[in-house]
Amino acid sequence: MTFAKPFASTLTATSNLEAGLTDLAANLVGRLVTPADTDYDELRAIPNLGYDRRPAAIVRVEATRDISEAVNFARTYGIGLGVRGGGHSIAGFSAVEGGIIVDMRTFKGVIIDPIARVGRVQGGATTADIMIPAHEVGLALSTGDTKTVGVGGLTNGGGIGWMVRKHGLAIDNLLKATVVLADGSVVTASPTENSDLFWGIRGGSGNLGIVAEFEFQLAAVREIYGGGLVLPATAEVLRGIVDQISDAPEDLTVIAFVMQGPPAPFIPESWLGRPVAMLGICWTGEQAEGERIVGQLRDLAEPIADLTGVMPYPALYQLTEPAEVPHLNVVRQFFSDELSDEALEAVVEAIANATGPMSMVQIRNYGGAVARVPGDETAFANRDAKLFVSQLALWLDPTDDVEKHRDWATRLYNAMRPAETKGAYSNFVAADEQRISEIWPGETYDRLVALKRRYDPTNLFRFNQNIKP
Ligand SMILES: Cc1cc2nc3c(=O)[nH]c(=O)nc-3n(C[C@H](O)[C@H](O)[C@H](O)COP(=O)(O)OP(=O)(O)OC[C@H]3O[C@@H](n4cnc5c(N)ncnc54)[C@H](O)[C@@H]3O)c2cc1C
Questions:
Q1: pTM
Q2: Domains in the chain, start-ordered, CATH in brackets?
Q3: Is the CB of 150 inside a 6 Å radius of any atom of ligand 1?
């Protein structure tokens, strides 16, 4: 694993982009990919099929200095700079037409210190890249629900995952980061070094720099009690689920995927295409108590399928494997303390009439450890809601009519949204929405603007939920 060192660029501007790219290629430890390369199309593609963009070049990062070189190049030539970790950006931010892509997928080393329970993770690692070696020594990072999602994008925006109520957001477990700034320099951000930057990268969604390396505190979690429980999605059952998970002990994190019964081996044929609530359950506490708590969910209706039990923590990620497949999406979302009966009735009706068989509503319980961190301690202020709710139109065919999916997701969002929400989550904001003031309310936004002016005054890092300097 390469350790970050301060790096001074030798790059000088020429008027010729092509000549500049030749110089850039020569300065890299990794590889520069241009449209002339045979693997250009393969490497520019992202799993979000809604964004078929052609960058001028792709920097395959092998060392922190490659990130600095790319940053210096984009700044010098005034071209767009995209950052790609897992490539799962819902708004397609990691594909930039005509720009330069910092492709971190070749920069994903992980070192686990089992004694200190610390994981050092390079900026291009995915959830799987940290999960597997951590699990081998009985540890786990509180991160997202899908293993191909990048730690980079997920953590910069916050990171809401299977253990969020017990172990907080991914950023709540961040001890330190190595950050490449807009001037190409490399700095450490921690509670004791550049603490203002450390505040801002925890929730600032990539506005202040590119994280070359994260250092996380890991939780001592090897096995969990939980897995998948599939119940019929009637309004009454959804009411019971929402009420139970909203006030559950912190050891219980649940994601209810309300969708049409998918063609999975555990779904009986009679339930294919009918509204079901697939509960992804993660109980991190003592097993007997977990069985009791999960039993209450089980009692809400005759289960369609019950895949719960004691299992290795990584097994939970099998539930979301269908989401790893490249697809298109329109996403809507809000944090809230409540969901009304009318909202739940709207869910059942919308799922029955979804514009695609993969479309869904996700209802996650939230709060717990997240809510214990003060709202001004990081750039992630939306912490005290009981629920995080999203409406996801998902489909596979890029020639399909986007408008019908957009209409479905937007109508359902409007039907479910309470009069007062508790804000929005930057990592789930779609490209067709503007929700900056809901992501970063009041003082959080003002503080981020001040940091943006200091660390990125020319807005080099602008392909994100953008804070304007
Ligand atoms: C299938 C799926 C499941 C998801 N599940 C969850 C979930 O359970 N919990 C959750 O919180 N979110 C979830 N998300 C949202 C996810 O966190 C965001 O889409 C996130 O941006 C993806 O990160 P990435 O690295 O894969 O994306 P990329 O597209 O590679 O990156 C997105 C943006 O993040 C920033 N970024 C990426 N890496 C870095 C870095 N090293 N330094 C600085 N900035 C960087 C850049 O602005 C970049 O443009 C999910 C998304 C999808 C598509």
A1: 0.95
A2: 17-106 (3.30.43.10), 110-220+442-455 (3.30.465.10), 223-436 (3.40.462.20)
A3: yes
